[in-house]
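User: Please predict the structure of the protein below. I'd like the answer in structure-token form so I can feed it into my own downstream comparison script.

Assistant: Understood. Taking the following sequence of 291 residues as input:
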Amino acid sequence: MLACGERRAHTRGVPPLAIAAAMTSAIIHASWNAALKGGRGDRIVDAFLIAIGGMITAVALFVTMGVPAAASWPYLATSVVIHLIYWTLLFRAYDLGDLSHIYTLSRGTAPLLVAIGAMLTAHETPPLLKAVGMVLVSIGVLCVGISPNAPVSASVWAIVLGVSIAAYSLTDALGARLSGNPLLYVVWTSGLMGVPMVAFCFWRRGAKQLIAGSRVAPWRGIGIGILSFAGYGLVLWAQTFAPIAQVTALRETSVVWGALIAFFVLREDTGSRRWLGAIIVAAGAILIAFA
């Protein structure tokens, strides 16, 4: 539970520094998701290398930073479990559908769920115009992501993936506030999560096949892990001094960057409806940031 003064601080508008952090994270997030989808390798090998990248970053920082405040430990444990579920859902969903569909549909379900959770747990009620902005972001993302030709199974997995995104977003935002240092919180999240992920990958592929697959393009997966660490750290840092739901919604402008990458790099057919959705997302982001 937040103290009254702290609660008031988090119900004000989004500071420019938080806006910049959330938008930078959005670009990073869209980029590593596109790299993951654009690869032609084994998804289990990708997961292994991503975990290694996150663990390398975590260990490098852990030795000089110590441990977060004890109050954040239950959130850390919960976050690790939710992230493992998230990664399982992510790889399964990308096996079934296009980046532009899976990525945008899953991200579109998260902001409003986070807003509801933030109202219940952190007592953060957004002003009317900013609430409208969050609704527009979700509508725009769903407009981009919903495809009438997409397999039903892909859509179902994407929506469930969105629920997991909302769950870890809220859990980590609250945990980072209690940790005393959001970067330190991310360090421990990545380090702890990497251990069971690596064990899972060895169980699924075996040491020989996993190591052989990792030699094909090792730095792509490791680089994605490092990028993921950096992008998520920016969001958690912003959420320690700005409203959780509004920062989360700003991060989901990554759908605009994802649509651009899908069209120009992955050569996926985006269509006019998806571009319209991207414009709606941008309008929502403007309301959140400047209304």
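That's the full token string. The CA atoms of residues 26 and 253 lie 6 Å apart.
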